[in-house]
Amino acid sequence: MNLMTLTEIRRSAQNGAVSARVHVQVESATPKVTREQQPYCELGLADACDRMTLRVWSDHPAYKACSALTDQNFIELTGEFHQHSQYGLEARKWTVRPLTPEEKAALLEGPAELRARQKTDSDFIAQTVDAIMDPRLRALCKAFLNEWGDRFRRTAAARNYHHARRGGLVEHTAQMMRIALEIAPLYPALNVDLLLAGILFHDCGKLWENSLPEAGFTMSYDERGELMGHISIGLELVNSLWRKLSAENAEAWRNLVPPSEDVRLHLLHLIGAHHGEPQFGSPVSPKTPEAMALHYIDNLDARLEMFAAGYTTAKPLAARIFDRVRPLPGNLVKSLEKFSG
Amino acid sequence: MNLMTLTEIRRSAQNGAVSARVHVQVESATPKVTREQQPYCELGLADACDRMTLRVWSDHPAYKACSALTDQNFIELTGEFHQHSQYGLEARKWTVRPLTPEEKAALLEGPAELRARQKTDSDFIAQTVDAIMDPRLRALCKAFLNEWGDRFRRTAAARNYHHARRGGLVEHTAQMMRIALEIAPLYPALNVDLLLAGILFHDCGKLWENSLPEAGFTMSYDERGELMGHISIGLELVNSLWRKLSAENAEAWRNLVPPSEDVRLHLLHLIGAHHGEPQFGSPVSPKTPEAMALHYIDNLDARLEMFAAGYTTAKPLAARIFDRVRPLPGNLVKSLEKFSG
Amino acid sequence: MNLMTLTEIRRSAQNGAVSARVHVQVESATPKVTREQQPYCELGLADACDRMTLRVWSDHPAYKACSALTDQNFIELTGEFHQHSQYGLEARKWTVRPLTPEEKAALLEGPAELRARQKTDSDFIAQTVDAIMDPRLRALCKAFLNEWGDRFRRTAAARNYHHARRGGLVEHTAQMMRIALEIAPLYPALNVDLLLAGILFHDCGKLWENSLPEAGFTMSYDERGELMGHISIGLELVNSLWRKLSAENAEAWRNLVPPSEDVRLHLLHLIGAHHGEPQFGSPVSPKTPEAMALHYIDNLDARLEMFAAGYTTAKPLAARIFDRVRPLPGNLVKSLEKFSG
Amino acid sequence: MNLMTLTEIRRSAQNGAVSARVHVQVESATPKVTREQQPYCELGLADACDRMTLRVWSDHPAYKACSALTDQNFIELTGEFHQHSQYGLEARKWTVRPLTPEEKAALLEGPAELRARQKTDSDFIAQTVDAIMDPRLRALCKAFLNEWGDRFRRTAAARNYHHARRGGLVEHTAQMMRIALEIAPLYPALNVDLLLAGILFHDCGKLWENSLPEAGFTMSYDERGELMGHISIGLELVNSLWRKLSAENAEAWRNLVPPSEDVRLHLLHLIGAHHGEPQFGSPVSPKTPEAMALHYIDNLDARLEMFAAGYTTAKPLAARIFDRVRPLPGNLVKSLEKFSG
Amino acid sequence: MNLMTLTEIRRSAQNGAVSARVHVQVESATPKVTREQQPYCELGLADACDRMTLRVWSDHPAYKACSALTDQNFIELTGEFHQHSQYGLEARKWTVRPLTPEEKAALLEGPAELRARQKTDSDFIAQTVDAIMDPRLRALCKAFLNEWGDRFRRTAAARNYHHARRGGLVEHTAQMMRIALEIAPLYPALNVDLLLAGILFHDCGKLWENSLPEAGFTMSYDERGELMGHISIGLELVNSLWRKLSAENAEAWRNLVPPSEDVRLHLLHLIGAHHGEPQFGSPVSPKTPEAMALHYIDNLDARLEMFAAGYTTAKPLAARIFDRVRPLPGNLVKSLEKFSG
Amino acid sequence: MNLMTLTEIRRSAQNGAVSARVHVQVESATPKVTREQQPYCELGLADACDRMTLRVWSDHPAYKACSALTDQNFIELTGEFHQHSQYGLEARKWTVRPLTPEEKAALLEGPAELRARQKTDSDFIAQTVDAIMDPRLRALCKAFLNEWGDRFRRTAAARNYHHARRGGLVEHTAQMMRIALEIAPLYPALNVDLLLAGILFHDCGKLWENSLPEAGFTMSYDERGELMGHISIGLELVNSLWRKLSAENAEAWRNLVPPSEDVRLHLLHLIGAHHGEPQFGSPVSPKTPEAMALHYIDNLDARLEMFAAGYTTAKPLAARIFDRVRPLPGNLVKSLEKFSG
After folding, report:
1. Contact, D207 vs D151, CB < 8 A?
2. Model ipTM over 0.90
3. Are F272 and F205 in contact (CB under 8 A)?
4. Is the overall model pTM greater than 0.80, yes or no?
């Protein structure tokens, strides 16, 4: 039987039952009872890109074993997978066994394809940052990647809506940088150094809202994120890196043009304004072309990713029509097929 | 004394009085009286990119001559120009004389720089359209340029907000196509043919809302625009071209993939959804990635142009800070200066 | 046991269990399992005005037969019907059998009372259209009824909210025309010909959003409806009829007053503006008294029908008080009883 | 020279200067100075349907006399009237004289045409009320007309938007009753007695917000209106009439069906809910069909009157297009001309 | 086994199963069937501050007895209580028995702690009212407490959001008065008499929306509340008390300053404006400092109570973080612990 | 002739012309021309609490002298002051002279009454801060007052709406602290130390948005304020003070309860959430009782101050009724007079 990821199983199950093996971390094991007072155990399971729930009934041979699992456990689940219209992905006729240390290590690394893609994206970000001309912005970006790069590579771009997977923020950031680099020549007045640095830092506060641990796939709630919000955390992070670097480079930066304090304020502005409007949580509205461009580049990539994901997860309503997936504004319709001679 | 455009004068007058000559069309000549019962004549004047108001007092030597002007008249206005904080651009110590036929023809052609830029943009649009692979979309775009190209090149992209000048729609359309071509490789699933055709047609209804006559600079109100709105006019225009072409090419288009009716519907969708949300007048929300991409590309270019224009026309509040220019969301701040070694 | 419609059963079941027979089309037969892994089959059932869901457990004698049903099947369901507070109408102790061809034909015709009412409404529309004085509007309306009358008579006025049944659009349209004819003498300036034609066409785009097939009761989703929305489809339909008729009547229509193009634009305006405000999907706001009147007549009839339907379907909260049924703005209260001497 | 009303002058002045006489009340005489320190006197003038401002310069022969005027003065103003695009209607080369007692009495009665129309409307209301079958609602309506009829006939329907003239509320109420009587047969379930009573009382609180004095045309601000709003005042007025009548008719009303308390509550509901939604100031949303019908009938008549008024007062933007007049949602377009053979 | 209240059980059950006895009123006993056609009986149970649902399966020994219960029954429920994440509080291994008359009387009195607290609050209100200096406002408040005090003490402050228990309105009112008395010295211009009377009456219409019967804990829906809303009911109640008192005190109140009618209008204003904005159902916005102060004092106390309640009932998301409880605007975070040396 | 402040003059002028002397700083002297081409000079004048505009015509004896003034000049203006309905406060028959150094110093100190009030408020803040029990919050508050106290005392609470005068922030902060101290005993769970510190810092970002210079009364626009907004500036300021103090007190703070990082986060939360909702610019919504209390205390004091100011500056509409002063929600009505025996 094939070893598949949860996402691969979910896609296949759109067309009927799938027999497969899957490697997952146990997120939680909660004892429950049905309304009819039948006890069962609810397992939360996760891999690098997806999650599912497994209900273990008290008459299942693995009931006792499963009830004892914790988030330190990594298991192989083998069975027949179905897509239930109300409850989502479900397993039947299943068995479990613990992963070997090698399997667990492989699982934590994530699927090869994802790993390769995120490696490419991560390298691209590093190269792009290296090419920033303004020494202050370049130093700041590099310091961030040095100090926080690991955590950055474990962070999702959002809790639900888009790129909601370990490393999703790296993918989103790299794609935004690519757009910026493509568009910049069309608007020669844009300060590209600033725009690229703004892209790198715009969601860096999410390292405390949507990061995942080194040895697991659980995105927990964080009091710092709740009390400050990722925009304010991002501002604080930049300020803290900036303070250190400007102390170290006091002499070198003193007479640069534009003045360093201007650079700092404009970069903070790009972070603070990137949600575009107060009702979406921006403490300030975009007041420079760079801030406005960043806002639209962010939205463009996020929405296109939502379409890509929606086509595989949204409930079909009719041929080529899918149910709305918020925050998209309406139902989804399949793209027009490309003309091919 | 220098011959300048109204926009050039407006920019110079930000730094104090300007002595200059300007060539303009008379839009209107309205007899008025002040509250103190002093009669005067109010001239509306326009050139290719801008407009101003000239008040002619009854004791001015040209009062009688000016009172007789109509929108058939083209004049040179020579004088000292000031920026009045409440009333905008004003002329003092001025004289007028009719333009020669050659001067009038030159004026109607617009400034050389603008002409060159719009020529480049117009040619770029034609080449881009030629490279569309889907024969139906290509034929439709070319038919539009053939049949309506002249009117297209005389149309503004908006009444006020951005590219509000003769030919502004060509500039906006070309720039959107450039963005689309740059971005497309980053999103291989996008149907670029459809996206480009959607860009060409997205505002084509404005040929009846914001077009200017061949021999003048006046953008009037149009009953068709009022009763239908530019989105519905655009849908109708595409349908009318499509009907003709699909009759002529019935045989050739019969078995193409994707089917022609699909192509038509998706193109209409891009037009109908390009404002993004119902509250901005879209009868349908974006339901495909191409429609979503078009919406953001449209906004991105429009907003960046609003910044560019705002920096020269908005009221300064302090060094590098300008008063809000709607529909931008707040005050404007000057871009961070680029680092230059 | 009585043969009843689904709506009749639903109403009776508000007062307790009902034993009855009902004739329905099978919309769908979906194999499912409960959370406890018990397989069952879910049948979607529909008649002319209503729909219900029947769960067939695997130990039911008809389980196998029911699992094989398709939307080509028409059945009689006999049993005891209950109103479940969470799951709605449910059947117990039931049996099924296929309908005879005569029974199926009778079912497809709909209940006699509904048929008679819709026949009256349909005739009234035809007569009203005949009495339109403007030859262009009259010809257009008649052409629509000739060409699309059958589909029109199979279309619902909405998917959920009001008149959501086959022929519901005919009922809604006729009632709106009656209101218009009653109100018109009170506002002598209104162009009644235009208002009546606008009423006929205002929702004609729904022939592609909410129509039902000739031999069934299923309202499916339609890509054209999704991509264009019913307002734009309606504009296109009128344009297409208009083009044909104005070619055929070119001579006769040439010198009529008002000019034919004015007539066309004002009619399109009534369609485009009938939702009243952009946030409800109108690409243009009402700019003439006829457009404004149409908007309010549409709402008045729709809301009163929502009350009528709500009184029989909404969940009672207390005597004479019912739970909110969207889009009504709050709970429903029973009308004040009429005084009767 | 013709004696005209202010409205007649305003309409004529759309086509150029008008020489005329007009009879008006002085609302106020305020001493002012121009920015250039020239003193002048500003007279507020009003007749039955309209108002204007007259500036009296210090070198005008009537300056001293005009400065002494109060709201006890009624004058004839003779002169040449112009429409100033910014300041509205203006008079030049004018003279004034006091009205004779006969002229003043005639002015206070209002123009004959308006008087006749409002007499018709007032009589129609009385007859309609007489025909209400429920004895409680009929008695209540008649008590209102007896006790408050004079004030009712002096009240405007609004401060600005529609029927903003003495007696405007009578015109609006009568027209709403006519609509209700026409529509009622189409919705047999409607309680027409309740609907008619609701129409009579829905704006009765405006007798304290928008009433005019017996001997003048000034609509002042009222502390009661400010502190309570016209809906709450209306509820209080109905309650106060009801209390008196139900005491007097305790015996006769005791056993009527429906119970009197139900009648009272439903009538109060129609008043409280007639603005339709909380954001427009309704303390409760419409929860019965009668309340919903009243809401739409109110809006329908108000909006159609706004169009009728707007066509004569709104600023023309082009042939058949007029500038927006709030609260209408967009520009106004002239109605389609009626077909006339 | 301990006798606990429902709220005490709910709190304890956050940390695991609780064995306890609880005394409750039966609100309703509804026969139901599961989807699998198994009959059961659903009991609604309530005590002074809380409510729960008990499902009685047909194989439970008490099934028959429970099915016969009505809202006249008061029972002791003994068992093991669990917090089910989806269905809330549940009982297992339970037994029931009827309460003795003494137990029932004790239950109806509510828990001693609550009773003591509400007694304190009620006394505080009476004392505060006694100290009002304006004889009209003092008389009005005292008349209200005399005539409606019992019902007042049985009324909740809201159906769900805050103080949603018998007597909750007394607690909320007393706390608002305390705030007003504390704040008043800081704003010497405030009319404290008016503010205190406004606080007493601001929600008095809830005596008909959210009151509970003398011998039970059920808050039903009321037609008067639906048709009028609590604000209008409150206005009517004050008017009716005022009428009686001002008749009785006609002589004494005649020449007081400020005039009695001013006092009445300002008090009504405080009631009408206390929701602050039309979209929250206020027929008038706050136009005096007292109305504005009342609005904020009301909100301040309501929101702080929502936090206090939310900390014990909201679903925990992580340590010290709780899920959003509407109408609070976001998740809840535990207060910062107080510093304690 | 009396020496008055601008505010005193403005109040007196509501009742007619006032002859007075006033000491002011020149904010600006701008050469202008009227529409009739008459040159004049516009002087912006300001004192501690108010500002006015003086137009100096070219035929005024002081024209030349005034045209040479800069913001380094402080003058006495003597004349007759009028309230112009359109242009506000105006001076006639006026003369000017420079202030002596003593007069200038006195002016810069502000009126004695204001100085005394702000001294009281400033002292109260210092004492309140001293009484904070948590050593970290106390140290932070004291460090702020030490380091930024002077600037704090020169800052307005807002640009326009309330306390828009030098030192207004001190007044607003002190009053909020007083409210907090009064209310705290009523809500024993509140962390008062945190709430007081939150009040001190909630608007501290305004030291860069609304501060005034030491030697003048001009509130200019600041790029930092534009790019970051006062909330983010406030967060940064607290962080910067915190870093310094926590380095200095590393040992002493190490084992305190609650942990210092919790204290820091909760304080930042109070600043970030004090606008209450995202649409008013808060990057995070209030998630603790302290944050919610701060939000309402802030609003309560601000609104009551708006009423106090509005009564003296708003345009009267009728006796005791004033025109709306944004952001108050409607017209203002005079408070009910207090009862006085």
Report:
1. yes
2. yes
3. no
4. yes
